[in-house]
Amino acid sequence: RKVYAYDFDLETGNISNQRAAVDFADKPIEEYGLPDGMTIDTDGNLWVACYNAGAVFKFDPQTGKTLQKIAIPGAKQTTSVCWGGKNLDELYVTCAKAFLSPEQFQNE
Predict the structure, then answer these.
(1) Cβ pair 14, 7 in contact under 8 A
(2) 34 Cβ partners below 8 Å, 6+ apart?
(3) What's the whole-model pTM score?
(4) Catalytic residue among 7, 9, 23, 36
(5) Start-to-end Cα distance in the chain
(6) Whole-number mean pLDDT of the chain?
(7) Which of 27, 61, 68, 87 has the fewest Cβ atoms surrounding its Cβ within 10 A?
């Protein structure tokens, strides 16, 4: 349960210097779930949709520190996140409903 960062060489397309930007090993799986889709904001912060957490987390990718948690009520299986809108100030979140019965889905 890690999100890795790399250095990228624009000329060659090569990546190098793998390092953990966020290590979820020290974060409770009940709260943080599993890291899934992610995006970067204009300030360089990493936003991660966490599957089975029903939330999107904002991290400082330099320190791995959690900066913010946005709960997504009724959508435990958050899958991805991206910025949109004219000013890139709208956060779009996708969710799944895998393995949920119709009753479970209605109760979520």
Answers:
(1) no
(2) 1, 24, 50, 51, 52, 53
(3) 0.86
(4) 36
(5) 25
(6) 91
(7) 87
